Queue: 2 jobs
Job 1
Amino acid sequence: MQVKVTCMIPWRSELTGDHQIPDGMTIREFVEEKEIAWDQEALVTVNDRIVQESYVLKEGDHIYLLVPVVGG
Amino acid sequence: MKILRINMSDLTYREEEVPADKLLLGGRALTSRIIKEEVPATCHPLGPNNKLVLSNGVLTASMASSAERTSLGGKSPLTGGIKESNAGGTAGLKMGRLGLRAIIFEGIRDDFYTVYIDKDGVRFEKADDLLGKRVSESAQLIYEKYGKNVGLYMIGVSGERKMNTAAMANADKDGSPTRFCGRGGLGAVAGAKGIKAIVFNDEGVEKNRPKNPDVYKEALKQYSLSLRENPGTGKLFPELGTAAMVRSTNKLGALPTRNFSTGSFEHYKSISGETLREIILERGGEGTPTHNCMPGCAIRCSNIYPDKDGKAVTSPIEYENIGLLGSNLGIGDMDQIVELNRLCNELAVDTIETGAAIGVAMEAGLLEFGDFEGARQLLLDLEADKPMGRIIGGGAELVGKIYGVRKVPVVKGQAMPAYDPRSIKGLGVTFATSPQGADHTAGQTVRAQVDHHSPEGQVKISQKSQVVNTIYDNLGLCYFAAGAVGPNLDMLARLITGYIGVEVTADDIKNMAKQTLKDEHEFNRMAGFTKAHDRLPEHFYEEENPASGTVFDVDQEEMEAIGVEGNHAG
Ligand code: SF4
């Protein structure tokens, strides 16, 4: 199964592109497999919505790894 | 630690010991407590019964990273409610070294003074030579007169004219007067009291030392380590600053665009943190993408923006300013945003309120969205004291009323920061229910890994964030450290215990913050606020944000339970 990633974290830009993943993989498993700490290093959206860690990825999903800072 | 009470009507002062019941109160906790206890809630904000309170956080002047913030409080001429606005910079550090936890300004007058404070006491000096000038020029005159190393607060022409948008400036570690207690028009309260500037000279004063150095050192080590190791505080803030948010909020449909009519901007890339960094690095010279507003801040979210010749234009270029003076005005050129930001700084007006006010003027058709020259002219009109400038200087709500505009992004009279509440609904709850009016620093939720487009659970998240933000405001800590500190309030408790030598627990810190929110809601109730004020403007409930496809639909009753009448804040 294939998903698409757009990574906005500057030092992990190599993640941007298509990724092959096994069926049934959750978003948290995917993110952690890429060595990004869940709820720490990225705000994660799938198809433009922020998702829970238990979200099971589907064919063609578009994952965004957004930078986790706040404005001031 | 002492509290200094200054009467501006007769130019007298007296020092008081911090009373026992206020020993653990600092920053916002102290400004709000004093305002609640001493200011009649129904008073006129610019009248003799309002007070202006400057208070250091509990950790201010401890030299722990990012801990030198000071709160300014009073009854707000913009919202008519209680107000606290805090900033980094260096003045708090100097004030703390002089042994002052807080300064309470009372009385009013028509002329202007510089209040000069050193180890020998307070001097009042006529400030006529500082009036009518840009902030950088007045600051220069202050440095020439009192020396390069003084700390300062000052108002600009906006405060002299008692405008709702008037802020109070203080200087960063390089002496540049570009850190602002911006929100709620407290610069106008200072103006009404005849305070043009407050100057701190800490020459000949001993450094502050922690009362329990062993506990302090250990806690400081742990705190500094977490700041270094956390990816946000260790890498993202120093590299991209808060402007890193642009791409995130644009993606979430929350980047205010053309008077909050939608949440994504076609030119978002050219106003992103990445572009900002590129421009600064490419131009070099005096510019830097990584800069600290106060000595010792390890996070260094600030920057200095250079012009094409490498000369510093202004500092810092932050997310909120990019949002309100950029996309909100349909302006997608970084140099243009920076120029508007620079002018706001020079006039000492709140960038958020001013950006929103110009946005409403654009909505009214006074000028086109994207009209940079027109926006710039409005700020020059403000400086020249022309009628149009007075109108913009009155803030977004006033502009809306004068020009019959229905869509005005304010709550309790105060403009929203750069998040569309239909897309980050937790922030919508904060805007609606915070005693401060629309304010992201009163309960920031955007960082949470939750579906920001869904109405579910947002009241809880906002309620929790309102407490967390208040904790940081009370301690004098920059909220940007929160990402690294996380839920580890014990670490902060030990830092405080070590610094002030009184045993403090994580629960104490939390309870103090909850009490602060209660104090503020109580003041607002006495000032006449009801649950009818705990709402967003009507159009956010009825008109979809096209970028997110959502309206604001959080349950009203649930919101009211944490607002001014519910007062279950915590
Ligand atoms: S993180 Fe930024 S705003 Fe906060 S203290 Fe450091 S430089 Fe100042």
Job 2
Amino acid sequence: MLSKKQARAFFLGGTLVTFLIFIGLTIFSFSKENDQTNRENLTAEVVRGKEIWESNNCMGCHTLLGEGAYYAPELTKVIDRLNIRYDGNGEEVIKSILMSPSPWQLNGRKMVAYGMTEQEASDVVAFFNWIGKIDLNGFDRVISPLAKEKINK
Amino acid sequence: MKYKSQKVAYWFFALSMLLLVLQITYGFVMGFARIGFDNLHEFIPFNTARAVHTNLLVVWLLSGFMGAAYYIIPEEAQRELVSVKLAYVQLISLALVGVTAIVGFHFNIWEGRKFLEIPRPLDYLVVVNVLLFLGLILTTLFKGKRQTTTALVLSMGLLFAALLYLPGMLPFDSQVTDSFFRWWVVHLWVEGVWELIMGGILSFLLIKLTGVDREVIEKWLYVIVGLTFLSGVLGTGHHYYYIGVNKIWLIVGGIFSALEPLAFLAMALFAVNMYRKGEKKHPNKLALYWTLGAAIVSFVGAGLLGFAHTLPQTNIYTHGTLVTAMHGHLAFWGAYGMIVLAIISYSLPNMTGRKLYDSSRGRMAFWLANIGMVGMTVAFGVAGVAQVYLERKFKMDFMLVQKEIAIHFVVLVLCASIFATGIILYIIDFYKHGKPSDEALEINE
Ligand code: HEM
Ligand code: HEM
Ligand SMILES: [Fe+2]
């Protein structure tokens, strides 16, 4: 029968081994050849957009890359989606929502009115554009309206 | 109660209960917003309510864990806490940091990083606070007469939880990298080191409540925490499937996270078997309910419902839907909410000297809270599965789907009311125990 000492060895050994593999895989994931995020396109605008995204806690209602809250739409492919709905004017629509001084509530549910400046709004759009081009291992297929059209054809 | 300084725990538990009530209140704000009553939007928009709800959850659980440590460590180490005064300083500063953060959330002061919304300057205060806590606990433990496995596992869990907070404070320009390291905190907490804390508390309670030999219990404790890390560390990969990192995580995360339920299964079997085996039956029935309840419900909420969406083939559809919220509620409740309520139920009569061991109010609290929470889980689950089909399979618009599933949130709010009633009864029971008292020292043993 297992002794306490063996049980402890199992705990310490298992932890050490999996932890080392975990660190190894982390380094592997962020190596240049394995980049799926177009790191070279991470411009100052995109970074400012991310800061705006964070400082307003947009993730408290929306999901992005499938992470966040489930109260408002997934925004990973939002520009594609709105381009379809508004004849290629997706970016403009997003900007007007962000710059609006009163809450956007097209579908009954209210969004916080941010009243952003033109510059801030276009930074956020740049951020969405960058996000939209990340290779998501197939998740894009599930959430992107463009992929849907391809599948249906 | 064997040592006077264990009384500090009472105030951590009291803070914990207060924050729990607030957490539930903000839960209702969100529940109502989802069925169209978003009247508070101007003051408490959904993202504020959500940040408050989840951060209070974390803080009330941490306050509960800290109280548990202040109660358990002196008893296990067989000495008084090194400084009671500093423990109160730590309590008050914890409460202040928590309240400041929550107030800030109402004024758009936060970091929009799910579960880690506390703004950076306050993060540093959290670190200082936790260092003080760890200092007190660890010096007490190592100056004590003995260092039991139970105490070591509990302290190790608390220490690692503090260390793992740090990767969450690293700044990154890329959303993907940011997210990647955010999971080092969130996932490695709940599916890693917090399980050590839970295991430590569970083992302490089982030793006290069942009278089974410590050596036997602590041996199995090692097996459980061994299974936890063996599966949980690489299991982090289940958050990396679809956020823009290499496909290797689909395999690694898929395999190892599928093994994670084993740790919870082991925990449930362990608790039930020790209970069966135990000769000495402690009269504190309520503590026993909560203890066995935690072990069993955590297996259902974390183990079974976690498994339900952890394989990449399923997760591609459920990722970022209400299915996640279904699992999140029962897992947090079963594993961490219930274990905190278990240690409170066990220690309260010992600290106050009032042995309300088996009141009908206490039993109602247990059943109503659990029935309510299971009902809420079902409501989230039905809404989530419907959402997956309509939105992800049939490509219906997000907001149209939300209208279709709003009815499930009516059910959610009803079940939440049952849950809240249970919690209120629990807190009345807490209050009826009165204040901790040194007289309780003699009453024991
Ligand atoms: C007590 C332990 C656990 C707690 C408290 C817990 C809690 C949570 C929470 C709150 C989330 C949502 C995170 C977010 O999206 O930000 C989550 C996600 C998830 N959990 Fe757990 N969990 C636990 C254990 C488990 C276990 C054992 C498994 C697997 C068998 C699991 C599988 C998952 C998966 C796959 C997701 C990702 C959902 C997604 O974003 O697609 N969980 N968990
Ligand atoms: C009155 C009771 C409660 C109600 C009405 C409630 C309602 C909600 C709602 C509506 C959300 C947001 C889901 C979304 O993003 O759309 C949420 C999130 C969450 N709640 Fe609760 N809740 C309650 C109690 C609790 C309790 C007791 C716990 C923990 C033990 C808890 C843990 C969580 C967690 C972890 C999340 C984040 C889930 C995720 O992102 O996947 N809640 N809750
Ligand atoms: Fe996880």
